[in-house]
Design a protein that fits this description.
224 residues; alpha+beta; Pnp Oxidase, Chain A; 25% strand
Length: 224
């Protein structure tokens, strides 16, 4: 830990991420003690956030099987290409630029719109205007479907949307979102525009519609 203590100057923790950095004007022994106490608190905060990140990154691999698709000539699980690995779906949920999010209106009508978003901690995250149709639909019925834009190597995710409120996750959402879309969201103000949703999968279907691959690649992943 590299800390410089200079009276009548500033103290800055050099090795911590910017969000944890602190500065003080140290003018007395008491100010040094106060600074040390805050440094300790910021260290605990940083360590706690790291623990949260590591825990949430541990996502169990779902159970894979063939989907029920009568009339499409789907082969058994050991034929064709066999079952696709879960990483195949995660890659497409991660790298897609545009996604479709389908929700249900209060009167039962479907609603589907394109969004930007990121795959983070085993869930699809996206932001929305507070008064948008999809946000109001999700407030009444959090069940939804998310699909990356690729219809050839296609993925369809059925899940439940939850509002994201934890500061560490919001910060990581903003960092990943800005990097992916060359955008400029701020962790401190992103929720002023509307909620961030995390759609946790319950069932995901993936198919490779390349000619000759469909019947032997269709895979369903189920989550506990």
């Amino acid at each position: 830990m590299q800390v410089t203590l200079l009276f009548r100057t500033k103290l800055r923790i050099l090795f911590l991420p910017e969000q944890y950095a602190v500065s003080f004007a140290l003018t007395s022994p008491r100010s040094v003690r106060c600074a040390a106490a805050l440094v300790s608190a910021r260290l605990r905060e940083a360590i706690s956030d790291e623990i949260v990140v590591r825990m949430t990154n541990k996502v169990a691999t779902p159970k894979a099987s063939r989907p029920y698709m009568p009339g499409y000539g789907i082969l058994d699980a050991n034929s064709g290409r066999g079952l696709l690995p879960w990483d195949w779906a995660v890659e497409r949920l991660t790298r897609s630029r545009n996604y479709w999010v389908a929700t249900t209106c209060a009167d039962g009508r479907p609603h589907c719109v394109p969004v930007w978003g990121i795959w983070l901690d085993g869930a699809f995250h996206f932001s929305s205007g507070a008064k948008s149709r999809k946000a109001r639909n999700l407030a009444g019925n959090p069940n939804c479907v998310v699909c990356p834009e690729d219809g050839i190597q296609a993925v369809s995710l059925e899940g439940v949307a939850e509002r994201v409120t934890g500061a560490p996750t919001i910060r990581r959402f903003v960092e990943n979102y800005n990097r992916k879309y060359a955008w400029d969201l701020k962790p401190e103000t992103v929720l002023d525009m509307g909620p961030i949703f995390a759609v946790r999968p319950r069932k995901v279907i993936g198919v490779d519609a390349t000619p000759g691959e469909f019947q032997g690649s269709a895979t369903r992943w189920l989550f506990d």
